[in-house]
Every structure is written in C-alpha cells, then in structure tokens.
Amino acid sequence: MNLSISWDELKNELASKEDILIVRQEIETVRQELKGEIETVKQELKGEIETLKAEVRGELKLLKLMMYFLAFLIILMNKGSIEFVFKILGILK
Fold first, then answer.
1. For residue 30, is it within any domain?
2. Res 77: pLDDT
3. Number of Cα atoms under 13 Å in the Cβ half of residue 71
4. Measured between alpha carbons, how far is 91 from 84 in angstroms, rounded to an integer?
5. Which residue has the higher pLDDT, 78 or 51?
6. CA–CA dist 9, 11 (Å, integer)
7. Which of 22, 64, 75, 93 is deepest in the core (most CB within 10 A)?
8. Would 2 be classed as within a structural domain?
9. Backbone angles phi, psi at 6, to 5 degrees
10. Range of 16's domain?
11. Sorting pLDDT into bands at 50, 70 and 90, what band is 2?
12. CB 75 within 8 A of CB 85
C-alpha cells in the first residue's frame, strides 16, 4: 500500500479544485444575471397585461353603448317593439 503522492499529482488535484470553484462562481454570476432578466421580463409582461385589460374594458364600454343605441333604434323604428323589449326584459308578461 503506497500512500505517497507526488507533488505534481497534488498540484494537479488542487488545480482541478480551483477550476471547480471558478466554474461555481461563473454559474452563480449567470444565475444572478438570469434572475435580473427574468424580473425585467415579468415587469414588462405585467405592464402589457394591464394595457390589454384597459383596452378590453374600453371595448366593452363601447359595445354596451352600441347595444343601448341599437335597442333605442329598434324602439324608435317600431312602436310595437316596445312590448317585445319589455317582454324580453321580463317587465311585461
């Protein structure tokens, strides 16, 4: 059983451990950069989602107004349609 290790073998072993530490540091650096980029993308997406929500709300308001306008036109065009509209709404039976 030979327990002696040459200086070159020991130096090679230490160098490989040093390389591992360097790689670990690089991995941690990349991890931190990715966290920052992910957070940036999250914030951008949140802003875009809020913009889309506001657009949809505006479109819904416009559709409601158009619906009321069309109902008003139906009533004006046909006096008999008032009873029909009231029946739909459940006001008349």
1. yes
2. 78
3. 13
4. 10
5. 51
6. 5
7. 75
8. no
9. -75, 155
10. 7-89
11. low
12. yes
Q: Residues of 3-19 as b/e, b for ≥16 C-beta within 10 angstroms? A: eeeeeeeeeeeeeeeee
The length of the chain is 93
Q: pLDDT of 38-69, one tens digit each?
A: 999 999 999 999 999 999 999 999 999 999 99
Nearest of 85, 67, 65, 66 to residue 75 by alpha carbon: 85
Which two tokens mark 54? 């506001």
Q: Please tell me the total count of domains within the chain.
A: 1
The pLDDT of residue 88: 81
38 within 8 A of 49, measured Cβ to Cβ: no
For the four alpha carbons of 75, 78, 83 and 85, in that order, the dihedral sign comes to: negative
* Distance separating alpha carbons of residues 84 and 30, to the nearest angstrom: 68
